[in-house]
Structures are given as C-alpha cells and as structure tokens.
Specification:
The chain is an all-alpha fold. It is built from 19 helices and 2 strands. It has a two-stranded antiparallel ribbon with strand order 1-2. A hairpin with a 3-residue loop joins β1 and β2. α2 packs antiparallel against α4, α7 packs parallel to α16 and α8 packs antiparallel against α9.
C-alpha cells in the first residue's frame, strides 16, 4: 500500500505544480476559445490542462518503475506500455482539439486508433465470467470489439460531463477511488497478481485528478479540455479491461470453499464490466440520453447542446457548486455502493444505508433554492452566503469591504459620488484634461 500511496502523491504533486505553468502557456498559445452559447462560464478560460495531467501520469509511472514491488510489474506485464501508448495518442488528439478544433468523426477515429494500439499490445478482454458457468472465452476478434467499444464509450462519457468547473475531475476521482479499493482487495486479500496493474492505474488516476482539481474548482482558472477528459476516460477503461477476464474465480473458490460465496465476492466483475460501468453510471446515462435526444430531434449525435444533466440542475435553481456536489453525491453512492455490495455480512445495513442516502439525495434535489444558515457561533468560519444578517436576518453579500474602509452609511454625499466615479473609472484625471482643453 505504501508504494501505491507514494505513486499517488507524486502524481498529484507533479500535476498540481505543472498546472500553473501550463495555464500561462495556454494563454500565450491562444488556447482560450470564446464563450459559446452552451457554456456555463462567462469569461474565456484557458484549456490544455491535460498537458499537466499527462506530465503527472508520466511522473507517477516513472517513480513506480523504480520501486521494489511495482518495478516488477513493468517487466511482467505489457499493460503499462500499452497504457502509455494509448494515452499518448489520446492526449495528442485532445491537444489538437483544444487548440485548433477537430471534427467529431475525426476525433472518433482517433479514439478508435488509440484503443486499437492498446489492444494490439495486449490490453484486451480474454474471457467473460458468467455466474454458474465460469469464465467464457471470447475470440480475439470479439475481445477486440468489446475492448475498443469500452474505451470509446468511457472516453466520450467522461468528455460529456466536462461541463461544470470541477465536475469531470471530481467524478473520475470518485470512480477511480472505488475501483482502487476493489482491485486492491482482490490483489491483497486474495493474492491475485493480475489485479495489480488495475490498482496502479487507479492510484495514478486519483493523483492526476487530485492534483488538477484545486485549479479547476469553481471558479475555474483552467479547464482540462479534451486533452484531459479523453485521457481520463481511457485510463478508466484500461483499468477495467486489465482486470476483466483475467481474474480466475477458482482462485477465490479455493479460499472461500463455496461457489456461492465466490459469486457474491465477485459480483462487480461476474457480470461483464459491471463495476467500471457503475462507477460512471451518471456520465453514461447522460451520454445515452444525449444521443437519443439529438437523434430524436433529427440532429447529429455529436451535436453540442445545453441539455446535459448538470445543465438541468442549474435550470431548476441549483447553484454551480451545489450542482457539482449533487453529481458527486450520486456518483459516490453508486460507485461505493457497488463495491460495498461485494463485502459479505453487511447486507441489511448496506440496503438501509443506501436507501437513506438516496432519500437524502432526493430531498436535496427537490429543494434547489434552499440556502442553509449557520448558527451565529460559527458564522465567522463559514462563507458569507451561509451567514445571517446582523439584525433583520438579511443575506450578506459576497463582496468584501476593504479593510479599514468606512461604511457607505457613514460617507457624505460628495464622498459617495466620488467613490462611485472611482469605481466606474471616471477619475479626476479626466476632469483635469477637460479643464485644460
């Protein structure tokens, strides 16, 4: 665990430190497209955040290659080299799209090429575990089709939710954390070495997201762009493929002594690719709804619109931050609920806990304009929007008065007029120039 955590922290640190210089480079390079009608942000914001994330990925894998236990993985498995090749192609495609724009069909072709390169290097589904039957082998052609389809679907699902500040990075981080816990349990608890690459990929993915999120939370100073979102989707898919079809249920049956117990413990992977699909269930649902909506309206499935799930949360009255937190909540509920379901002995508690969390989420969704107010004793430690007015209970505005400045009520009429002129740029210099002229 210590080596995985070291890789995670190194990846996060490098990503965080690189994001600032990358932001300046994106501004100089002109990777700041104008605000579109479907965008939520109001000012042009630099993209190319995926460059910093790719740097964090390379740094994390470089450190892992020098560690005692993880270093052996680079010799025994070709998955890491395949990941770097596919991520490099996807990253380059995203950089070109962030700077100059790439046609949707060309982008889809590039995604399939990146997936095909990884399949050619061995990252492919070999068999599908079926309850009561066991592993069912698939032909190389079928395995290639399943693998490429999974990569393309995951890439576009993550790309579709990259519409609010911090949304895509946070949801992928939640998905990667859930996948890390599950794959680590298979590797450490049951000694399944084939699950080790998935643990490493998940740890690196968590570090990439954690390092980038401080720069991307609302209000975002930089966007990850397609260079980041498509790479995150590809890494999720690779982590899923590297573990699916390679875990032999008989290894766990030998320890549990029961086929029924084995089926229960392997619920997330007994149904093909169930866990990686559940951890991004919301992005996938958004993707399917968008395709159906656009096709029904006679438009291209790749045509952009402003009807995604996060857009609808804003329309019903949720703030930007609350919409993102709601999406985080449901993503975590689905992902960790699926992982917890594979842990024995917690059936009733798990069901009751999930039901309570679902009820809480529904209540929050039904109260979009509810603004909680903190007690007076803690008002000095919470944001202004959660404080009560000093007397009449009125809401305190977000603007901060400069230290030492007198209140507006204490100013004379002339001082107020001068303050307004200074705030609007009508300085005394203009007045002098008019008199001199």
């Amino acid at each position: 665990m210590r080596e995985y955590l070291l890789v995670l922290f190194v990846t996060a640190a490098v990503t965080y430190l690189l994001t600032g210089p990358v932001r300046k480079f994106a501004i100089v390079a002109g990777a700041m497209p104008p605000v579109r009608a479907r965008d939520v942000h109001r000012e042009p914001t630099p993209r190319l955040g995926g460059i910093a994330m790719f740097g964090g990925l390379c740094a994390g894998l470089a450190v892992a290659s020098q560690l005692t236990h993880l270093g052996n993985m680079f010799i025994q498995s070709a998955d890491i080299r395949a990941l770097l090749a596919g991520a490099g192609i996807m990253w380059l495609l995203g950089v070109l799209d962030d700077k100059w724009g790439v046609d949707a069909l060309v982008k889809l072709g590039g995604q399939m090429i990146a997936a095909g390169v990884m399949v050619w290097q061995g990252v492919t589904v070999i068999s599908i575990p079926v309850p009561g039957v066991g592993p069912v082998s698939v032909t190389p052609t079928m395995g290639m089709v399943i693998s490429v389809t999974l990569v393309v679907v995951m890439v576009n699902a993550v790309n579709f939710i990259d519409g609010l500040d911090g949304l895509a990075g946070g949801m992928v981080c939640i998905a990667a954390l859930a996948f890390f816990l599950y794959s680590y349990r298979l590797w450490y608890r049951y000694g399944i070495n084939d699950a080790a690459p998935a643990v490493l990929f998940s740890a690196v993915l968590i570090g990439m997201c954690l390092g980038f999120l401080p720069h991307n939370l609302h209000p975002a100073r930089i966007f990850m762009g397609d260079s980041g979102s498509m790479m995150l989707g590809l890494m999720l898919a690779v982590a899923a493929i590297s573990i699916t079809g390679r875990v032999d249920p008989d290894l766990i049956t030998d320890q549990t002594g029961s086929q029924t117990a084995t089926v229960h413990k392997l619920v997330p992977i007994y149904i093909p690719l169930l866990l990686p699909l559940t951890v991004i269930a919301l992005p996938l649902a958004d993707l399917l709804l968008a395709v159906v909506r656009r096709t029904w309206a006679g438009k291209s499935p790749f045509a952009a619109d402003k009807q995604h799930l996060h857009h609808r949360l804003l329309e019903v009255g949720h703030s930007h931050s609350r919409a993102v937190l709601i999406m985080y909540f449901w993503a975590a509920l689905i992902a960790f609920g699926t992982v917890a379901f594979s842990v024995p002995g917690r059936g009733r508690t798990l069901v009751l806990g999930l039901a309570g969390l679902c009820l809480l989420g529904i209540v929050v969704l039904m109260m979009p304009r509810f603004r909680p107010r903190a007690p007076r004793v803690v008002q000095a430690f919470v944001p202004p929007r959660y404080r009560k007015g000093a007397e009449a209970g009125t809401e305190v505005r977000d603007e901060v008065t400069p230290a030492g400045a007198p209140a507006m009520a204490e100013l004379s009429a002339d001082d107020k007029e001068l303050l307004v002129r200074l705030g609007t740029g009508a300085t005394a210099v203009g007045g002098r120039s008019e008199k001199q002229g």
